[in-house]
Amino acid sequence: TVDLAEVNARFPSLQNDNVLRAIRGQSPDRIPVWVMRQAGRYLPEYLEYTKEKEFFSRCQNPEVACHLTLQPFERYDLDAAIIFSDILVVPQALGMEVKMVKGQGPVFLSVVRTREDWYNVERRLLARLGITDVPTEVQDEEIIKRSEEVADALSYVYDAITLTRTRLNGRVPLIGFCGAPWTLFVYASEAKKTKTYTECSKWIYTEPEFVHRILRVLAHVCARFLARQVHAGAQLLQVFESHADALPPKQWREFSLPYLNLIATMVKAQCPGIPMIVLPKNSPFALRTLADSPYDMVSIDQTLDLGESHRAMTAVGKGVQGNVAPTTLYAPPAKVKELVHEHLSEAFGEAGQIPTRYIANLGSGMNPDMDPECLAAFVEAVHAYGKQIEAS
Ligand code: CP3
After folding, report:
1. Which of 62, 217, 250, 335 has the fewest CB atoms within 10 Å, i.e. the most exposed one?
2. Which UniProt keywords are present, listed alphabetically (predicted)?
């Protein structure tokens, strides 16, 4: 097990713990705020720094990953940092070839469309660990037994986390993350961006049991990966179920939920006290079910009402993160401030009290064509909201 107190003792003490307090239900000094892909292409300094560096090479170099993680802190008064990495480093660690193609996004060179495709992934992975002669039917069990060794392949992420937390010098907590098994399976089966979800749907309606085999392997590797991130210094974890919307409610409960819960149960057993957030993208029905899960907080998008969601979750001792529509940032800065104030007022009241168990965020990540000034306005407006009452 990972002792959080022992890990904390290796690093500078935390100055701004508003995010952690919000999650624990203690009152923060202000509404904490961060955004997904806060390190990214909308920042000219990001474009400049990454010009000659291939995407995954940035993730693999701890100095580069650390530099990029810290870039937004030169501009914004954010309350959390998220380690520069990607959810697709896990499929890579399983031996799958993934490329980031300009204008197209991630592309898998090794696709999983048949049983044989997946058996080959397992076989190659075991061979890499020096294990041969495992009967095909039980390769998955063998990998699960050795998931700690599989997670060794991601040592560059742990190094980046340790370095970044050291350089953060206690300014804000550092978030570690991974993609959820279902989302990783969607990428592995579709191979590239999809609007139709053809391949993953064919899989679940023809070979449901085999899909469970794949998801179980992925969940065990993800859990080890997250626990190692905590050991390396991550103070909070987020699990991204970015393709939750590929599944209708009943299938979401079968193919997504059990593995989200398995991950949280395993990680919390291994790292007692570690706060965990889950993001089920574009699946408003998931919120109610996740109220009864090991996660501390659910990250919601603009398809849900913030006030209602927050009341429902705080009633069961959990919180919400979100959910300002990302398109809000296409308004001019002054209008962004107005819209954010309006959004928070509608959810929490005009008085501007700081709600507990709430972290402000966008419904999804920053886009490359957003104006950095608009993110500044967003962050300022969130912080200003809670100050209303003190001023009067
Ligand atoms: O600042 C941060 O949020 C931390 C870093 C981070 C990245 N990706 C960096 C990145 C995080 C948390 C992610 C998670 C991630 N990656 C998700 C889950 C979040 C979500 O949006 O639902 C997903 C689905 C991915 C897979 C992925 N990686 C996509 C869809 C893309 C965009 C491709 C494109 O061309 O638009 C990426 C690339 C990526 N990951 C970028 C960044 C900064 C941009 C690519 C670049 O800089 O060249």
Report:
1. 250
2. Decarboxylase, Lyase, Porphyrin biosynthesis
